Amino acid sequence: MDDRQFRNVMGKFATGVTVVATQVDGKVHGMTANAFMSVSLNPKLIVVSIAEKASMLEKIKQSKSFSVNILAADQQELSMIFAGQLKEHREVQFDWLGGIPVLHGSLAQITCEVSASHVEGDHTLFIGKVKEINIVDSEPLIYFSGKYRKLAEE
Ligand code: FAD
């Protein structure tokens, strides 16, 4: 099967956009990710899928904790920054929730401790045990077929 065709098909699953963030050696590292989902209500677990080539992989292995920050409609530029699509370095504001960095202004913030990791093909699935959550009443950024979208008003 052709890789491009596979990516095209997976891209037809419309998602929100998150920035996964962690802190190692006093430095915050963020990475854009849409491979995120809720796993369990009791206990409260979520999963993110991180590529083996992503520098985030080693950072989460070291810190054993991370946040998932669901982006608001006006945060497309932050998604591009943390996907490495804007090359010049920008100062980005992080807040702190229970000692874990969370992205300022995001729609929802979830902090986690790694409870398990599973290597599957060229990605690692990190299961996060949810520690704290925070939510803001706002609209989400959407990703569909390789492009950013916003929800249409009714
Ligand atoms: P780097 O390439 O080192 O960092 C990414 C960028 O973030 C760099 O430009 C860096 O300067 C910047 N940055 C990091 N920390 C800070 C900081 N504190 N302040 C300012 N800038 C900072 N990949 C996956 O593995 N899983 C996914 O689910 C996934 N979903 C994606 C969804 C979308 C919509 C997009 C666009 C990309 C997705 N990617 C995903 C790809 C992933 O975002 C990129 O490959 C990313 O560049 C990998 O990051 P890295 O950890 O290797 O870090």
Explain this structure to me?
The chain is mostly beta strands. The protein is 15% helix and 49% strand. It has three helices and twelve strands; from the N terminus they run H-E-E-E-E-E-H-E-H-E-E-E-E-E-E. The chain has helices spanning 3-10, 56-63, 76-82, and strands spanning 15-16, 18-24, 27-33, 36-40, 45-51, 65-70, 94-97, 100-103, 108-120, 123-135, 141-144, 147-150. The strands form three sheets. Strands 3-2-6-9-10-5-4 form a seven-stranded antiparallel beta sheet. Strands 1-11-12 form a three-stranded antiparallel beta sheet, with no helix packed on it. A hairpin with a 2-residue loop joins strand 2 (18-24) and strand 3 (27-33). The mean pLDDT is 96. Flavin-adenine dinucleotide (FAD) binds at residues 17, 28-35, 49-51, 54-56, 79, 81-84, 89-90, 92, 143. Flavin-adenine dinucleotide is lined by residues 17, 28-35, 49-51, 54-56, 79, 81-84, 89-90, 92, 143.
Question: What layout of secondary structure does this protein have?
Answer:
Elements: H1 3-10, E1 15-16, E2 18-24, E3 27-33, E4 36-40, E5 45-51, H2 56-63, E6 65-70, H3 76-82, E7 94-97, E8 100-103, E9 108-120, E10 123-135, E11 141-144, E12 147-150
Antiparallel strand pairs: 1-11, 2-3, 2-6, 4-5, 5-10, 6-9, 7-8, 9-10, 11-12
The structure holds flavin-adenine dinucleotide.
Residues 17, 28-35, 49-51, 54-56, 79, 81-84, 89-90, 92, 143 line the site of flavin-adenine dinucleotide.
